[in-house]
Amino acid sequence: MEELREQCPWDRKQTLESLRHLTIEETFELSDAILDNDLQEIKKELGDILLHIVFYAKIGSEKEAFDMGSVITSLNEKLIRRHPHIYSDTVANDEDGVKANWEKIKLKEKGNTSVLGGVPRSLPALIKAMRIQEKARGVGFDWEEKEQVWEKVEEEMQEFKSEFNAAAPEEINKEKATAEFGDLLFSLINYARFIDINPEEALERTNLKFIKRFQFLEEAAKRDGKSIGEMSLAEMDVYWNRAKEGE
Q1: Triad 71, 128, 113: Cα angle to 5°
Q2: Is-contact 180 159, C-beta < 8 A?
Q3: Would residue 111 count as lying in a domain?
Q4: In a domain, 14, yes or no
C-alpha cells in the first residue's frame, strides 16, 4: 500500500471520502458471495475489504490521526470492555444477557442520550427496523411472548385493511396509508425477530426466487417464439407455474 500510494496515480488521488462508496460496493459484493455460499468468492471479497481497511489506515497515518496498529489496539480494547462476562466479573448466562450488556456499555461509551442514537442513519429501512428493535430489547423494552407480537401484527393488519379496503371505490389517503403500512411492516419485522428469522435474509431469498422464476419465464417464452411484452398475463402464468413446478 505504501508503494501504491507513492507510485500509482489513482491510489495517490484517493481520500477517505472517495473510498467510501467503493467500500459500500465491496461490502455488498461480499454479501452476494455469502448468499451464494461461494467460499472462494467470499475469500476474494474479504481480501478486497481488507485492502480498503489498509487503505483507510494508510490515509489516517498520513493525517497523523491513526494507523493500522492503533486501529487494532482500539478494537482489542473495545472487545475487552464489551465482554465483561469474560474479562471481568459481570454475569451473562445466555446470548440475550451478552447483547444487553453490549448495548449498555456501547451507550455509555458513545455518550449517546438515546439508546437508539447508535443506529446509523443511512442503514436501509428494513435493517434499521431490526437494529432499533434489538437495541430497545437490550434495555428491556420488548414484548414478553411471541403471541403478543403476533397479536400486534394482526391488529396492524386489521387497521390497514379496514382503513384502506381494496374493494372500496374512493381514492385512499396516500400519506396515511404509507404510515399505516409502515406500522404493519415494523410489526412483521418484530415478529420475525421473535421467532429467530432474519427478515432481510428472508426477503432476499424471495427476491432471488422471483428473479429465477421470471428469468425462466423469459427464456421459455423466447424458446417458444413468443415476446414477453406481447403476452397476456394468463399466458405468462403458464410459464410461471412451470418454473414453480421445476423447483
Answers
A1: 70
A2: yes
A3: no
A4: yes
Does some domain include residue 184?
Answer: no
pLDDT tens column, 140-182 = 889 999 999 999 999 999 988 888 877 777 788 888 888 999 9
* Distances, alpha carbon 194 to alpha carbons 84, 85, 118, 189, 206, in Å: 26, 25, 22, 9, 20
- The string of pLDDT tens digits covering residues 79-133 is 998 899 889 888 887 887 787 777 777 777 766 668 787 788 888 899 999 999 9
Sign of CA dihedral 150, 154, 131, 198: positive
Q: Give the chain's domain count.
A: 2
Query: ∠ at Cα 196 (80, 37), nearest 5°?
Result: 80
What CATH number is attached to the domain comprising 77? 1.10.287.1080
First CA to last CA distance, the chain:
47
Q: In degrees, to the nearest 5, what angle opens at C-alpha 149 toward C-alphas 99 and 175?
A: 105
Domain holding 70, by residue range, is: 2-81
